[in-house]
Amino acid sequence: MADLACTRGAAAAPATALGPQPLFSARHKPAGSRLGAGGRPLRLALLAFWCRSGAQRCPAGEPYADGLLYVLLARGLRLRWSVALFAGLVLLTAPMCLVGLYGHMTKVFLGAAPLLLLGLHQLFDRSRRAWPWALLAAVSLLILLLHNGYQFVYGALATLFFGLAALVRPRYTTRGVMLRRLLVLSLCCAVLVGPLLAATYLAGRDPLINTDREDGLASVFRIDLLHFLLPAPQTYFFQRFFDRFDLLYSPFRIEQTVGLAWVGIALTVVALFARGQLALRWALFTLFCLVLALGSTPQFNGYLPLGEAPQWWMPASWLAALPGTGFMRVPGRVMTIGFVGFAVLAALGLQHLVQRWPRAEAALVGGAATLLLLTQWQLPPPMQALPTLPPFYAQLASDPERYGLLDLPLMPVPFAFGYTQASAPYMVMQMSHNKGIFAGYISRTYEEHPILPEIVEHEIPAASEITYNGQTLDAGQTMQRRLAAFGYRYVTWHKTIYPGATQRTRGLLIDLFGAQTPLQDDSKQRVYALDPAASVHMRFGGGWWPKEQNGRWAQSPAELIVRSYTARSVQLSFTPAALYDPALPGMLGSSGRLRISQNEQPVANIPVQVDTPASVALELPAGESRITLTLDAGNFSPPGDQRTLSFALRDIDITTVP
């Protein structure tokens, strides 16, 4: 559901730019919903092919884009128009690309990869100017980085491969010329790709983010050597003649669809015998991709001749050792660019046959295309009903105010993944209501929710002694304030989504809202409203000790963390229960001075007395503020007590100023 929902989001984006389409609603769009703005390069690429593919066949636009952009590469290799179109057809029918319709749409659009290889091919041709083609290659790498991390790494490997090939065997020139052109390419990449790549690397170093996906699934993604020779399991040809090999594929077979078209293999053999150095270069590149797709443990016909242990000499082991590649747990995806090289080889072989028998060009190209389609024709992809948009969410779509919605359940009990993947249905709805949501299905996310992990765990923490506007709140009311402070306005339980989580979700709602009457309750949804006026929440930060009967001790400085969804004025009040005074024998006095700062900026230095209420006015910005309390007298350690203490407070309250 998660992958398909995200696929639908990417496929639907052209309607955002072109407006409502008469054939779009019935197939891709829940009734009553509308589309929010999208942002991936694949979405922009779809626009050019919207009219060509038709609104009702929106997902097919991306393969068309691949095929047509690949024609540009084929023409750059000086192939005839008919052969270039055949080359585009080879890529269009590549199983690893088409399988993206089953859930990973980033595999479907490879247009930047052919453009990258076109730029590299022309860059290393001495008869061409260096700068335009270096810019094309760098821009293509930038698009790959924006589009998909896997494809960027494979594009970078392709750049390295063809760069080394140009130095080892330069075409009609010297190594010095090729080296200068590589320097031009490096400069373009540093300017265009470097900033985003550096920012991505720095973000990935956050220890809270899960970027290394070594999760024990390597065996289910493993590529067997026979996978390259068998038709993809989602083809008619496989189901009709090769279903006995079904056991070679794991339940994650969409990651093992690397079968090479037989007509392409035959044409590759022709190319290797007839096309010389050019065919050899592309053959080595394709072979490199094939070996890389095998992963670090070779397998043949279901057997592991070298055992389960990763083999250090396999290219996949070298790639996995590089920094920043821990997320690449699916080796077969390298064939997304490997099929580009394979299509070139097939086209070179067909070009040789057409040049040898020019009068039979139509028969040769038509016959090759027919054989290709017969062996690669796909079964219809599975259809899945998308969640119905609640009428309440349709109303929110017209509300211009910005706030968030907490959709429940967050994690279904029988589900194999976490709350991010389970949030996919809510992402579909978000494209209609255009409000913030609790979580989204992205490839790499935090190990735990960065701001509200207690909601994910369905555990409402106990309430502290902090009061709000003089009122004592229970745990559920305190959590409601915390949600409102982060901008949430409504909590919705979708009763028909993930029914296995019903009991757990109902328990969370009881803890959170108690006997509070929901805003709306029917057979499909239950909606609770959070008070936007109660969007200030305060909690204890560092420097505080557990609460005691007469108050809560703290060491100087002690921190209070206040979050407000909007900028507002508040009054912080408290009553000192004890104050350190080094001048007295018992080290506890009745008065002192307390310095108060907000976000490291001084706010006040006020006199305080034991058992006498004190207060200070604060101007809270939107977001989080850190309030620091420091007693001028400093800290002490009482005899027989290992704690560091400074003062104790009780009756801590934060009041919103109208």
Features of this protein?
658 residues; alpha+beta; five-stranded mixed β-sheet; elongated
Describe the structure.
This protein is α+β, with helices and mostly antiparallel strands. It has three domains: 2-14 and 39-376, no CATH class; 391-534; 536-656, Jelly Rolls. It is 41% helix and 16% strand. It has 24 helices and 17 strands. The strands form three sheets. Strands 3, 8, 9, 11, 12, 15 and 17 form a seven-stranded mixed β-sheet that branches. The protein has a five-stranded mixed β-sheet with strand order 2-1-4-6-5. A five-stranded antiparallel β-sheet has the order 7-10-16-13-14. A hairpin with a 2-residue loop joins β8 and β9. The radius of gyration is 31 Å and the shape is elongated. The model is unreliable at 9-61 (pLDDT under 50).
Write the layout of secondary structure elements.
Layout: H1 2-18, H2 24-28, H3 41-47, H4 50-53, H5 61-76, H6 81-92, H7 95-98, H8 112-123, H9 130-147, H10 149-168, H11 175-192, H12 194-204, H13 236-241, H14 262-274, H15 276-293, H16 315-321, H17 335-356, H18 361-376, H19 391-396, E1 404-408, H20 419-422, H21 424-433, E2 436-437, H22 453-456, E3 467-468, H23 475-485, E4 488-494, H24 502-513, E5 520-521, E6 525-529, E7 536-540, E8 544-548, E9 551-554, E10 558-564, E11 568-580, E12 588-589, E13 591-598, E14 601-609, E15 614-620, E16 623-631, E17 647-656
Parallel strand pairs: 1-2, 1-4, 3-17
Antiparallel strand pairs: 4-6, 5-6, 7-10, 8-9, 9-17, 10-16, 11-12, 11-15, 11-17, 13-14, 13-16
